[in-house]
Please model this.
Amino acid sequence: MKRYGNYTRKEASLDSRLIIIAAEGEFTEKIYFEALRKHARNSRVHIKILERDEENKHNSSPEYVLEQLMQYKTENPIEQDDELWLVIDRDRWTIKSISAVAQRCVQDPSYHLALSNPCFELWLILHIVDVSLESEEEKIKIQKNRREKKNTDPYLKRKLRALLGSYSESNYDADQLVIQVAEAIMRAEALEKIKNARWPHGLGTHVYKLAKSITNL
Model:
């Protein structure tokens, strides 16, 4: 047997893949991927979602997310088919910061970048709405993701709340979203302007690539 943190890969299932996810958000991504794991029921894929320690609880920079994965890889055996995924947003970070972690993914094929532009909520919305069919005015609002006032939520959180009936980063019904993951994947692909780009430079999300790896869709 080979042990991966709290996961043991038995000799009888050595063809299984381990997907390790480190995310910028503390709650939103974890809630979603735990729901997707249950929905996918893929016995050949085991998902581990890394959590930040208390000291780095509020450290969500791309560099720190990458550091989490690098530390995990150092401390645990990784097989050739295993994947380490960075799930980050575009809106808060500089191109220099994002480019640095993207380059690390290029250098080591076990690392993968799932960036959402502007943020992860776009991926959630794609389970409900085909954003590529929205008006240009609406696409601009989504891309800018502005707050109405200083202490209010950004546009995508407000839009998602209207679509779901309720939404907060730490409390939402991901189960009703993941049943539409195949549609979300197709819609995210339809948004891509530049194929094979390291991350979406316009409105878009590469979380669909991670979802495809988990579900084999």
Observations:
- Residues 4 and 76 are 6 Å apart (CA to CA).
- The longest helix spans residues 62-75.
- The mean pLDDT is 90.
